[in-house]
Amino acid sequence: MLNIGNEKLPLCSGHGPSRRSFLQVGSAGLVGLSLPNLQRAEAAAAKLGKKDTIGNCITIFLVGSPGQNDTWDMKPDAPAEIRGKFKPTATNVSGIQICEHFPLMARMMDKIALVRSLHHKTGATHENGQRWMMTGHDFNADSVKPHVGSIVSRVFGSRGDLPANVILPGPIGNTGAGPLHGQTAGHLGSAHEPFFLNSDPALPNFKVVDLEVPKGESASRLDARKRLLEQVDELQRRTESLSTQMHDASYERAFRLLTSSEAKRAFDLDSEKVEQRDRYGRNTFGQSCLMARRLIEAGVRYVTVNHFDTVFGQSCWDMHADGGSLNNSYLDYERHLCPQFDWAYTALLEDLDQRGLLDNTVVAVVSEFGRTPRINAKGGRDHYPSAWTNFLAGGRIKGGQVIGSTDKIGSRPNDSPVEPPQMIASIYKAMGIDLDTTMMPGPGDRPVRLVDAEPIGKLFT
Amino acid sequence: MEQKYEGLPRAELKLDGRRVTRSAVANDWGLQLLWVISRDGKQIATANARPDAGYEHPDKMPGSYEIVLRMWKYVDYKKAADGEFTNSKFIDVSNKVTYRI
């Protein structure tokens, strides 16, 4: 096995590196990129003429999943072991209440549509929910479905030098049940894999690794190396397949990213006012939300912000209170998670609105599932895919409303049940994508619908 | 990646009668922010300081009142058997203001 950065390249048994591996290593080294992001660099040209008529999307993924009864679907009249420890607060929309620990969000409810009747019927692992909410499908390793942003990248292409699909600050890691988190391009290929930032934008010395010219390289030397790479690639093109050419396009795209002043500007948080950075919160999540706005402004079509990358050994939404490695509790919600989310999320909505971007940028807040209506013996709540609340704002979404409801204890949808593919379809529609006329290549290049569901009609009326 | 909180948040409090106002928090970590009210040296109340930059404590019992802004400092999520954090804690992020009734 040969390692390039974090990438392991297989060697032919007993015969050293394969020619393919050699070319990959050589090309990566020439432009100075880590191979994972290099291969993920978006490279396909726009497919349709209407590419600039659609809007954008920022999806915030709450890894671990908040409990519906503790956040956006409170049950103040239920018994103590159901209603939990928090109180509801009024919002700026009459009749809609949310948790007291989202006071700023409460003042912006007129922009937000809560969907309180989400549920799914497959497993209760984090990964089941991640696959549903990132792709509109549950699936296994034999039939990996593409991330929504990868579909947008494939169908609508990129604008300028920036990738169409970016995930901040990094991919979802270990959440307990395997590597299928729904944040890959699947059959759409490496050209449409998300571009992962892979660094913490809250750190004082923050840099995007893949935008840095390697130490000891000058721009002219890099150009010379690129010309050499092009000669190698030309030879390669004459002898190898279409898929090889797709990789070549990825390398070209990666090189453009590396040398693009537009990309460097977009990722440069230091050019923001200090007060603006404070307004988002000086933490990984807050600065990722600010970065998301910058990227949308610069032309990225789809940005996903993962609020945490694991559920183990750190503060996150997965509130089992188990006393071990899943020991999040009400105290984490009250002091850390709810305030951090409230501060950054409302900063993002305000900022997009003030810049005139909210009307063409959907902001979707999604999670894997809900949590058990009854508090467990240790004071936490466990996984519960039968009912939960997510929400949408911006784009064509009509805010200030609630879609669906749950029963008295938050255990199941009471009316207007919504399944994950309907949320994905609604995101597409809110971006201005017509699901009846827009297709993508399925496996084998057969045209297929972007998602097998209809949007939630009430969100748009 | 575990979230890191760099630097120290800081805000300035001003008092006008019993009403206290705060500046924006510089280097704001974005975590829970509380008005902490003490009377004669003993903490008697807290209130969420995120929604508004001003606060007036309703209590009019005679005594010496002190108000300070406090923010949650997340170090890690380790907790003792009673469920309370062991390393993460609230810290003062402002000057203190006092008044007497």
How would you summarize the topology of this molecule?
The complex is a heterodimer of chains A (461) and B (101).
Chain A: E1 2-4, E2 7-9, E3 11-12, E4 16-17, H1 19-31, H2 35-40, E5 56-62, H3 80-83, E6 88-90, E7 97-99, H4 103-106, E8 112-118, H5 126-135, H6 148-156, E9 165-168, E10 195-196, H7 219-239, H8 242-259, H9 261-266, H10 274-280, H11 284-298, E11 302-307, H12 330-354, E12 361-367, E13 370-371, E14 383-384, E15 388-394, E16 401-403, E17 405-406, E18 413-415, H13 420-430, E19 439-441, E20 447-449
Parallel strand pairs in A: 5-11, 5-12, 8-16, 9-10, 9-11
Antiparallel strand pairs in A: 1-2, 3-4, 6-7, 8-15, 12-15, 13-14, 17-18, 19-20
Chain B: E1 13-16, E2 19-22, E3 33-39, E4 42-48, E5 54-56, E6 64-73, E7 89-92, E8 97-100
Antiparallel strand pairs in B: 1-2, 2-5, 3-4, 3-6, 6-7, 6-8
Short summary:
With 461 residues, chain A is of the alpha/beta class.
Describe the protein in words.
- Chain A is α/β, with parallel strands linked by helices and 461 residues long.
- Chain A folds into 2 domains: 19-46 and 218-261, no CATH class; 49-208 and 267-460, Alkaline Phosphatase, subunit A (3-Layer(aba) Sandwich), CATH 3.40.720.10.
- In chain A, 32% of the residues lie in helices and 16% in strands.
- Chain A has helices spanning 19-31, 35-40, 80-83, 103-106, 126-135, 148-156, 219-239, 242-259, 261-266, 274-280, 284-298, 330-354, 420-430; strands at 2-4, 7-9, 11-12, 16-17, 56-62, 88-90, 97-99, 112-118, 165-168, 195-196, 302-307, 361-367, 370-371, 383-384, 388-394, 401-403, 405-406, 413-415, 439-441, 447-449.
- In chain A, the strands form 7 sheets. An 8-stranded mixed sheet of chain A has the order 10-9-11-5-12-15-8-16, sandwiched between helices. A two-stranded antiparallel ribbon of chain A has the order 1-2. In chain A, strands 3-4 form a two-stranded antiparallel sheet.
- In chain A, helix 7 (219-239) packs antiparallel against helix 8 (242-259).
- Chain A is globular.
- Chain A starts with a strand and ends in a 12-residue tail after the last strand.
- Mean pLDDT of chain A is 86; it is low at 1-50.
- With 101 residues, chain B is mainly β.
- Chain B has one domain (13-96): Immunoglobulin-like (Sandwich).
- In chain B, 0% of the residues lie in helices and 43% in strands.
- Chain B contains no helices and 8 strands.
- In chain B, the strands form 2 sheets. In chain B, strands 3, 4, 6, 7 and 8 form a 5-stranded antiparallel sheet that branches.
- In chain B, a hairpin with a 2-residue loop joins strand 3 (33-39) and strand 4.
- Chain B is globular.
- Chains A and B meet through helix 10, helix 11 and helix 12 of A and loops of B.
